[in-house]
């Protein structure tokens, strides 16, 4: 995003957080979006997290081949990597593809078919009505999904490691329960909150300002995913730097 | 009454509107006509606040609209109904939900009352019983009629209609035109229709504003338009051989 786009993005967010016309209508929309973002993505996040946990355990076991390093370290490294980095970041990038493109194309199509103009003519704050429920659903449901991703990644690591013989069940369990620092969960949830905001607001911005037709909606959708992914990685670095 | 005063609007170097003024009275069907690119849709969008003119004012019964804040505009927008060229129905909602949408947003009526209003509006546009259909299941003419039903749901004082006949067969076009005229007279709304359909011009044009190259070129009624000597207007209105022949009988 260049500075002009960033300025427009900030102004859009200002409009998004105006007082809603009617809370009951917004609440209904928020729950619909929570269902779409949260429940609708649970399957995908579960599969990805389980496999990432399993593969990570195998790779850590492969790299830590030394008599001086206890095997329990494999469990500890899997746990911390899953919680701190892989679960929030990989989940966010996957969700940026799934949810981000859907949000951008939904709002973009509404723009090119004059549905957003229709909302404005009725006197409805269209950024608030269309984008606020998505952002609120994103910042609540992405952390929930990340918690699931953490658990499943660690469970996936257990099955990947034990079934392949890379680590014994006892060593893995001892590894994941030794020296656990709960602050890592806080860091992960802060990341998930920030990513939830990016995943919903950036695609909404791209869709909201589409001009043209089907081709431009598709281009906006692609741009939304690319910008979201880059923003996620940049914010990942910033949050990690600030909190660790 | 809606009054536009000296409206100027450009997109880059392209001056689309150059000092348009006009008065649109209630209870009559006001038409804005002109060729493609003449600025009629831009004028409409300036009037409803989707475009901000560089110069000029739009007055709704004396209330200056152009420089109002977002919150101030909401009050006037609640009095506006609009039918878009593509109908602009919300795809994810049924016909009933589309029409009920402004009622849900701005009224605290019980559901039964809102449903009664929805059914009345549907009956008014001859679409009784189509409540549960989605926009994708409707024909072009039906979509326009649902668009009109949604536009009149809040009993608007001002009704804007953008190209109501585009993509419709001649018979359906006449039905839509007559419906617009009937609603205008029945509710004494200030109705502004943007069109380049000659059947509409001759059929319902109580007051006509002709735009040419971004300027107001002519204004008058459908009775006067038949007897004008202005070349640009004649070229536009009586472009086809059929209309040229018909002009002799007016």
TrEMBL record, chain A:
<dbReference type="InterPro" id="IPR030802">
    <property type="entry name" value="Permease_MalE"/>
</dbReference>
<keyword id="KW-1133">Transmembrane helix</keyword>
<feature type="transmembrane region" description="Helical">
    <location>
        <begin position="36"/>
        <end position="62"/>
    </location>
</feature>
<dbReference type="GO" id="GO:0005548">
    <property type="term" value="F:phospholipid transporter activity"/>
</dbReference>
<protein>
    <submittedName>
        <fullName>ABC transporter permease</fullName>
    </submittedName>
</protein>
<keyword id="KW-0472">Membrane</keyword>
<dbReference type="GO" id="GO:0043190">
    <property type="term" value="C:ATP-binding cassette (ABC) transporter complex"/>
</dbReference>
<dbReference type="Pfam" id="PF02405">
    <property type="entry name" value="MlaE"/>
</dbReference>
<keyword id="KW-0812">Transmembrane</keyword>
<feature type="transmembrane region" description="Helical">
    <location>
        <begin position="135"/>
        <end position="159"/>
    </location>
</feature>
<feature type="transmembrane region" description="Helical">
    <location>
        <begin position="180"/>
        <end position="200"/>
    </location>
</feature>
TrEMBL record, chain B:
<dbReference type="GO" id="GO:0005524">
    <property type="term" value="F:ATP binding"/>
</dbReference>
<dbReference type="InterPro" id="IPR027417">
    <property type="entry name" value="P-loop_NTPase"/>
</dbReference>
<keyword id="KW-0067">ATP-binding</keyword>
<protein>
    <submittedName>
        <fullName>Phosphonate ABC transporter ATP-binding protein</fullName>
    </submittedName>
</protein>
<keyword id="KW-0813">Transport</keyword>
<keyword id="KW-0547">Nucleotide-binding</keyword>
<dbReference type="InterPro" id="IPR003439">
    <property type="entry name" value="ABC_transporter-like_ATP-bd"/>
</dbReference>
<dbReference type="InterPro" id="IPR003593">
    <property type="entry name" value="AAA+_ATPase"/>
</dbReference>
<dbReference type="GO" id="GO:0016887">
    <property type="term" value="F:ATP hydrolysis activity"/>
</dbReference>
<dbReference type="InterPro" id="IPR017871">
    <property type="entry name" value="ABC_transporter-like_CS"/>
</dbReference>
<feature type="domain" description="ABC transporter">
    <location>
        <begin position="2"/>
        <end position="238"/>
    </location>
</feature>
<dbReference type="Pfam" id="PF00005">
    <property type="entry name" value="ABC_tran"/>
</dbReference>
